[in-house]
């Protein structure tokens, strides 16, 4: 009545339902309970009109147990379930603390349930991670340490099974959109010098090292390509030999001196010159 501020917890468990997959940002922070359509002959018990007394007894027992064990559960730091990601561990931590306090078979059963529920299907990579994967493949395909923005885009949109060829309602991904997507990982285009001495806006493989290590390491690690050495008549600096190496060696790979003392220059695309600051289809961009 006196409008005095009062501190209270707003936390509460929530149940979100949907058909098919939920948004990745929700699913990644939830404990999934996947349901399937009944087949002919399957019978599911209806609890809508069941006797309410057993549920009341169970609710009373759970309330009493929670009151008796509130402090030890609140102080607990349960051992994580091996194999779960960080966000799944966060979701399961209070449940594992309760299971450990209950003792008996509950600690083992709780961790087995966590692995079973989160291991039903492989995690679907985000569109950003999918782009990183395809960019890595593009560098490997050309066996080079740098690619012009337009060249990289042509490789990406040339894959009919990837989403980039139809990214814009049936139209290909643009140079500006590629730059915007990669900027989410702290990767920006810069002026690079290619083996044929052209200076264009593009990307260096070394700039992707951290992103590859953080987001693609779960796929078995990054295999870097030994960079080709510059040659006056070379187009991509390709080298016939490919050396497999861990992700940490990307930044240490020998770098040809193609971009030494480079300055910002006009970007060329398809023979037409584009000044920095003027984009495709009249949209402003800086690449």
Describe this structure in words.
It is a single chain. The protein has 287 residues and is mostly helical. The chain has two domains: 56-122, no CATH class; 127-282, no CATH class. The chain contains eight helices and five strands; from the N terminus they run αααααβααββαββ. The protein has helices at 24-27, 52-75, 86-102, 106-118, 127-142, 149-157, 175-183, 209-215; strands at residues 146-148, 190-193, 199-204, 267-269, 272-274. The strands form two sheets. A three-stranded antiparallel sheet has the order 1-3-2. A hairpin with a 2-residue loop joins strand 4 (267-269) and strand 5 (272-274). Helix 2 (52-75) packs across helix 3 (86-102) and helix 3 (86-102) packs antiparallel against helix 4 (106-118). The longest helix has 24 residues, at 52-75. The protein is elongated and about 80 Å long. The chain starts with 23 loop residues before the first helix and ends in a 13-residue tail after the last strand. Mean pLDDT is 77; it is low at 219-287.
Tally of individual helices: 8
Helix percent band: 25-40%
Radius of gyration: 27 Å
* Largest β sheet strand count, sense and barrel closure: 3 strands, antiparallel
Instruction: Report the strand count.
Output: 5
Instruction: Report the span from N to C terminus.
Output: 60 Å
Q: Return the average pLDDT rounded to an integer.
A: 77
The proportion of strand residues reads 5-15%
Number of domains: 2
Unreliable stretches covering 5 or more consecutive residues: 219-287
Kindly report the spatial arrangement of strands forming the biggest sheet: 1-3-2
Return the string of H and E elements.
Answer: HHHHHEHHEEHEE
The backbone outline, from C-alpha atoms, is elongated
SS class: mainly alpha
């Amino acid at each position: 009545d006196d409008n005095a501020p009062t501190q209270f917890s707003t936390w509460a468990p929530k149940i979100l339902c949907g058909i098919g997959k939920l948004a990745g940002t929700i699913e990644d922070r939830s404990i999934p309970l996947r349901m399937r359509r009944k087949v002919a002959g399957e019978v599911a018990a209806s609890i809508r009109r069941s006797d309410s007394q057993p549920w009341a007894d169970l609710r009373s027992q759970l309330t009493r147990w929670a009151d008796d064990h509130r402090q030890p559960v609140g102080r607990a730091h349960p051992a994580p379930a091996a194999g779960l990601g960080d966000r799944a561990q966060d979701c399961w931590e209070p449940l594992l603390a309760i299971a450990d306090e209950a003792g008996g078979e509950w600690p083992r059963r709780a961790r087995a349930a966590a692995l079973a529920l989160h291991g039903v299907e492989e995690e679907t990579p985000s569109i950003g991670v999918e782009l990183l994967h395809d960019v890595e493949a593009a560098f490997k395909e050309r066996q080079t340490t740098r690619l012009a923005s337009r060249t990289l885009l042509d490789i990406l949109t040339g894959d009919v099974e990837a989403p980039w060829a139809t990214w814009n309602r049936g139209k290909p991904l643009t140079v500006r959109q590629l730059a915007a997507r990669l900027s989410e990982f702290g990767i920006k285009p810069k002026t690079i010098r290619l083996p044929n001495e052209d200076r264009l806006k593009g990307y260096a493989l070394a700039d992707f090292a951290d992103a590859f290590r953080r987001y693609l390491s779960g796929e078995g690690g990054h295999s870097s390509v030994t960079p080709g050495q510059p040659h006056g008549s070379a187009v991509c600096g390709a080298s016939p030999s490919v050396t497999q190496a861990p992700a940490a060696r990307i930044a240490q790979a020998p770098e040809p001196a193609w971009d030494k003392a480079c300055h910002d220059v006009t970007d060329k695309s398809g023979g037409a010159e584009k000044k920095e600051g003027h984009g495709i289809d009249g949209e402003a961009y800086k690449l």
